[in-house]
Amino acid sequence: MVCGLRSQELDALLLREMQADAPYGDKTTEVLGLSGDARGDLLAKQDLVVAGLPAALRTFELADSACSWAALFGEGSRVVNGTVIAKVYGPAAALLLAERTALNLLQRLCGVATSTARAVAELDGTATRVLDTRKTTTGLRNLEKYAVRMGGGHNHRMGLSDGILLKDNHIAAAGSVAAAVSAARNNAGALWKVEVEVADLEMYRQAVAAGAEVILLDNMSDEDMAQTVAERPRGVLLEASGGMTLDRVRRVAELGVDFISMGALTHSAPAADISMELVPVRQ
């Protein structure tokens, strides 16, 4: 595994992206006739949390087996603007061929990790944990969820196979909260928890009465969430979700919920600003 992804899957992803970027070769380096070796310094141009270096740097090895690299910081490290976080070595043409694919991935994963770290910092001193969601970039789910972990967050479900979460459409299809929970409880294995998404206090009380073990409070007001905390039976876990922003999460955590899930960790994280500075190696 490399950054949460099987090695073969990572290689296929990187090769596909390089092929899309240079389907008929790199015309610029071809016309320059580059033949010498070079070093590429990967430079952080903002404060960020490092995530995905081994995955991104693998791109250079795939471009040319003569390439090598050295990561200067471990995954999850916090670095400041102006820091060189890794160095790559090899034929200049290969470094330039792989540059954009490697940087696209690295900027994305560092961006997710950095956004997650900001959310985690907001909850410092509370018992509430930050969760991600399934709102990930197509093809990058495992990598983005890995980046969430590097930023100090926690993964919710990796996918639909990993947990039972009865959402509004499941409840509509089953006919009611009680019917959905009953069916799930009767058909799930004994070790599976049943989580139910609710939108108001009435649905919350129905979910509690039906025996839900985890209740997701979707787009509820702070006042209503505080009421769910006051009413919850022993052993029931509460997850707040919907419209969770950095300026709100601390307030929600202090209400007493166990988890705050944030789709924005992945679907809205800005790419980190990272560049590669090429340095020719004189023979």
How does this model look, in words?
- The chain is α/β, with parallel strands linked by helices and 283 residues long.
- The chain has two domains: 7-111 and 270-280, Quinolinate phosphoribosyl transferase, N-terminal domain (Aldehyde Oxidoreductase, domain 3, Alpha-Beta Complex); 121-267, Aldolase class I (TIM Barrel), CATH 3.20.20.
- The chain contains eleven helices and twelve strands.
- Strand 9, helix 9 (222-231) and strand 10 (237-241) form a beta-alpha-beta unit.
- The longest helix has 31 residues, at 92-122.
Oligomer: single chain
CATH architecture of the largest domain: Alpha-Beta Barrel
In helices, the fraction of residues equals 40-55%
Uncertain segments are none
Mean pLDDT: 96
Widest sheet: strand order?
6-11-10-9-8-7
- Could you say which structural class the secondary elements and strand pairing correspond to? alpha/beta
How far the N terminus sits from the C terminus, by CA atoms, comes to 37 Å
**CATH class category name of the largest domain:** Alpha Beta
* Strand residues, percent: 15-25%
Q: Based on Cα principal axes, name the global outline.
A: elongated
Q: Biggest β-sheet: count, sense, barrel?
A: 6 strands, parallel
Cα-atom radius of gyration: 23 Å
Number of domains: 2
CATH superfamily of the largest domain, by name, is Aldolase class I
CATH topology of the largest domain: TIM Barrel
- What is the element string, with H for helices and E for strands? HHEEHEEEHEHEHHEHEHEHEHE
